[in-house]
Amino acid sequence: MDFITILSIFVLAVFVGYFVVWSVTPALHTPLMSVTNAISSVIVVGALIAAAAAGSTGSKWLGLAAVVMASINIFGGFAVTARMLAMYKKKERR
Amino acid sequence: MHEVAQTPAWVMLAYLFAGVCFILALRGLSSPESSRRGNWLGILGMIVAVATTLIHHAPRPYETAGCDSAASFLCTSGLVNFASAEFAEILAALAAGAVIGIVTARRIAMTAMPQLVAAFHSLVGLAAVCVGAAAYLNPAAFGIAEAGGLIHPGSRVEMGLGVAIGAITFSGSVIAFLKLNGNMSGRPILLPLRHLINLGTLVAILALVGYFVTDQSPWVFWTIALLSFAIGFLLIIPIGGADMPVVVSMLNSYSGWAAAAMGFTLQNSAMIITGALVGSSGAILSYIMCRAMNRNFISVIAGGFGGGDAAASGAAAASDRPWKRGSAEDAAFLMKQAELVVIVPGYGMAVAQAQHAVREMADQLKQEGVTVKYAIHPVAGRMPGHMNVLLAEANVPYDEVFELEDINAEFSRADVAFVIGANDVTNPAAKTDRSSPIYGMPVLDVEKAKTVLFVKRSMGGVGYAGVDNDLFYRDNTMMLLGDAKKMAEEIVKAMD
Fold first, then answer.
1. Which of A88, B129, B157, B347 has the smallest number of Cβ neighbours within 10 A?
2. Model pTM score
3. What ipTM goes with this model?
4. DSSP string spanning B214-265?
5. Residue of B36, B58, B127 lying closest to A47 (CB–CB)
6. Per-run averaged pLDDT (10 residues), chain A, 94 residues
């Protein structure tokens, strides 16, 4: 992919983000933060590449450290979001 | 252009799929019903992204041995080497993170959510720095090396920016965590000449990123990282505790931009899409928080709000005006007679862990036939949506909880406004007193209710903004002095 293609993806994604986030109900702003936290750990992709690559020991260990950190975030972020979302209940109608 | 190894189409499609899943995960949060499915879509996207990377970049000790193109799936996927020691290490790293993450997520108290989110942000930031450093040390593995082993100049800019934003996110989030967790005073810490120091450091970082293009020596790279760690600390220490909703949202935004910058370096669409989503999400939340305080972003970031002097003078003025004190019995009697009670929770409710007692009180009232509603100010608490989560935890149905714009008109119909742990967000001076530091801030019109019951620890303290609240001295206000949780429990008892 050349730079312009990547930039196009980025700019369009910012616009998508803008509209999607404005539609989030304020009551769910805390789960929004925790789930964005979890998905921004997609940076694990870079960490995995570094950890798997041969050629530099320093790079490999930095990669493994980043895998642990991103993994904490992924599992912790999604789990705590699920825990919060499970608490939001409607009024029981009798 | 870059001398980048051709990425197979299925890999690019898989990352695109992951990106779409993340968009849908956020889209799901538009209502509580769809949100749970959204979270699962997010998890699905993450599984796809991780699995794709593991297959595509699995350790290949026998690299290039017979693998000359992307022609053979088995060859490029490296499936044959899944049994390697490197792969075991990666799985162990993922598993270690999973255990720590899940245990933390299960054990954490809901009142501690702001700290947890700050801690998570710091991890994203540090992970971004590590990935950036790894890419710097081993550019060939990331496909960003030029023929001579040097890093492509364009990639150097992206890498430098990614590491800088990641480092700022890390150190800023650590300070935010310490302040939210109470390890560090919530008071702003003001260094002399701080604006000059901060500006100088920022300019130096940008200049170094520019210089990095011409010279990729290690000292340039590591100085960028070090200066960025420093500026993260410096930026957050002057910001006071109640401005934390803005800070936490801002750091949320930064963690997204860091991921996006790394996505540029790695030419990975999942990272770019996600980074852009998270970046704009955090930016919008910061904007909403600033608007709710009627302050501009720059002044919040410049810090220093809620310092000691204003608080002292406010407290002095408080002592000499007449006010009415009520008891739990008075409050119980008033509320039982009411038709509509609006409960206004604030940070004080979170500190006292009073949400369950408040819900019990509301249950009692509902049994007496009273309508109970909750009114939430956008900046109540220490992070966006903080109060909503606490009330949800206490089993308050979310359709009884209203945002400022939706409930403000109802206060004039309400018989009782029950303010618990909130202060500045109810101060009528924000509407009338031009000299007040909170003038212009949208507030809850609690004074329009027939009676205001105001739960407060003592008459001495003032709210975060350090201003006296006119509401305390109104004829229709009754002060209920005491711990928020105890007071709510006593009211429940008095209702029987």
1. B157
2. 0.87
3. 0.94
4. T---HHHHHHHHHHHHHHHHHHHTTS-GGGHHHHHHHHHHHHHHHHHHHHHH
5. B127
6. 88 94 92 94 92 85 95 96 91 64
